[in-house]
Amino acid sequence: MRDYVAAGLDEVLTTSELAEYLGVKPQVIYDLRRTGEGPRGFHVGKELRYCVPEIRAWLESRADPSRGSAARAG
After folding, report:
1. Domain count of the fold of the chain
2. What is the pTM of this model?
3. Cβ neighbours of residue 11 closer than 8 Å, sequence gap 6 or more
4. Where does 1-74 show beta strands of DSSP type E?
5. Which of 13, 21, 35, 63 has its CA at a distance of 20 to 30 angstroms from the CA of residue 48?
């Protein structure tokens, strides 16, 4: 475990790490952010970083609501 995570700070991902996790190219993340649909991030110098809790919230906001209700109804 990274020391800062053990100290109670949120883990952060780079754009490349986030893209790898999602199985897309980094350009997809940049494109989503440019259109206002991407996850919230912050700059460290010229580099973007994304807090894991922000990524989770962004993914949850993009969930298909019809799938959840269909799964519960079945």
Report:
1. 1
2. 0.74
3. 2, 4, 5, 51, 52
4. 12-14, 42-44, 47-51
5. 63
Helix %, strand %, coil % for the chain, to 5? 55, 15, 30
Q: What is the pLDDT of residue 54?
A: 94
pLDDT tens, residue by residue, 49-66: 999 999 999 999 998 887
Angstrom distance (rounded) from CA 66 to CA 44:
38
Residues spanned by the domain of 26: 3-62
Distance CA 3, CA 8 (A): 9
Cβ atoms of 19 and 25 within 8 Å: the answer is yes
Token pair, residue 19, equals: 């893209």
